[in-house]
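anyone seen this seq b4? input:
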Amino acid sequence: MRLLITLVFTINYICYKVNILIQTTRLLLTIILLLLSTSIVCAQENTAPEPHFIGYYFTNRNNEKIEDLYMEDKFTFLVIETSNAIGEKVVLTLDDNDGEWIYKNKYISTNSSIRFKIKDDFQKVKFKIYNPKRNKHNRLKEKAM
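predicted toks r here
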């Protein structure tokens, strides 16, 4: 009888130790998975592609590329092509030969800067062509001076 009781206690003790071992193994596996997933996320963040500026061009209201602007067009779109640059901030500075524009109801001319954020790989920015015959354009120009 003593042997049977000792055997039962031994089996219970072994089961208890195996249960602790299983729980410890589960905990260690969970920690390892957590560390691996963190490492993968960090590696993906570090290998994010660099933003690239591909080019730019002007289009008319029909999305046709244009080289010459005419007052009759009233507005044009500056299309900026980028790759992996969504969220990047851009500063566009006009040179002496870039003419006069209206952008978001502000007069823009030589040495003016425009700031905006890239929202798409093909960002379209609408510019109204400054027309000295329009009173609103003249008021915006006077306000800017």
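The mean pLDDT is 76. The radius of gyration is 34 Å. kinda curious what u guys think
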